[in-house]
Task: structure prediction
Amino acid sequence: MEKRLSKLKNTMDKTIFKDLDFSERHRSAVFQVIEKEGEKEEDVFRAVLQLLVQEKTGVELAKLLRARGIKKFDSNEGFLYTTLHRLELKGHLAANWSERREKRYRLNQRGKRLLERMEKNSYKQGDLKVWLEVTVNE
Amino acid sequence: MNNSKKIFLETVGKEIKSPSVRKMIVTELEYHIDKEKQRFITSGMDEKDAEEKAVAQMGNPVPLGKELKKLHRPKVDWWIAVLFIMALCLGFLPLMAIGGNLGFVPHKIIYAIFGLVITGGLMLFNYSKIVKFRWASYLGGLFLSFLLFLFSTAYVNGFPYVELGPLAFNILDTIPFFFISWTGFLRDKRMNGLVLCILYLIPFLMFAFIGNILAMLLYTLILIGMVVWADTARPNKIYLLLMGAVGLVIGLATRLKTYLPGEYTQEKTFVYSNIQEVFTHANWLGMGGDQAAGVPEAHTDLALVTIIQQFGWLTGLFTVIVLFGLLVRMLFIFPRVNDPLGKVLIGGAITLLAFQTFYNLGMILGIFPLVGVPLPFISYGSYPIVFNAIMLGLVLSVYRRTSTFHAIKE
Result:
């Protein structure tokens, strides 16, 4: 049995899987996804809100999220902007363009109240829904 | 050299139709890539690798573009659109009740169509361009008031009217012009407090001169509702609010003085006792009560009383709910708008719609004096429809473009 199976594997490698290349990049991508799954959505949400108490650009936010060990937006930083734009459209963030063509985001009054609820751990069901809606289609 | 960045940005941008939104998104993403590239270069990478790494870090541009497209698609606020059409339809009820023999219905149909066209047109119009018309519409408003003053074809309740075919203009129709001009004045950074105060006073004194206190009150309220949200310099804001408060006090004092116990008491008691009688006889769903106890202004100011009389309490309640629904929806949209100009427009619209609705209800309930404040969309006349249609059109335009506010100006 053992022999037959290993033979099969060898033949498969030579024929069907000949063009399949599982490179180091794929390997790390798989590991990244596995690691991301370990993150709790509400922790990521809370971190984003906390960091936006002070005005920041998307680049600065991405950097600080990395520093906090949050991997949700790793190799996917473009989607940080869909999240920011959605939070802005939902009326939790205020944003403005500075002279140097950088767009800066900051929590507005509604956003601050949301953060307060998140920090007290007394958030309503609707609050987490906001986050899930905001980061949908990841 | 710039290839991978260019391809990435083009792929994302391809999905987004509106040029201004595309530009805003591409600029923001390009900034991000450039910053990250710089970081990689300083950590010792060569330029090409740095750029490729920075682009790869952004993720897949195709789903990103699709997602951003979905996010920034122009939106229609169906709540307001549906409630607006319902209110227009409800406006025909008082006319049906008093009989169509006076030719009101054809006129009302024209007003309603006119209102729909205005709202639809303004929704598609980019509201930020409104600022450009500030002087034109200010002069237009002044011109219209002089026209009314000099060439009025009719006087209704002592106020001059100009009639052009089915459309009748009166002094209140000039207020939208001043509303539009103020959205621009409040954004104009070169305006100083004195100029703003003078610009406020000219129409106010003109309304006072013609003697239309309602116009004075509406004009002042609209200004206050706008100034509060404007990003004007603080001293200018304070001057204008003080002026507005004084204007409001003068307007209200003049109005109430006319209605102190005295010459009008008898007429007033007559109207209120009529309303009382209608209310005591009205059913929940009463069709066609007797015409005997009719109220004056049955199709205009007291249109709601006529609805309750002829179609019952439930229909009346439904009418009020539709109008409140419009207000509630605008209050819901308001905190979601970040643009100061959008806030100014919605602030003005809420103030005006709320003032008319609550004042009219207060009049019917006997809390406020009967001074001829029409119920928006329901009362007969061009003003209650056209004026409020302009307001709703602008609110819809702001809502439609909540996502394009940060589009970079050329």
In short: Chain A has a mean pLDDT of 81. The CA atoms of residues 10 and 17 of chain A lie 10 Å apart.
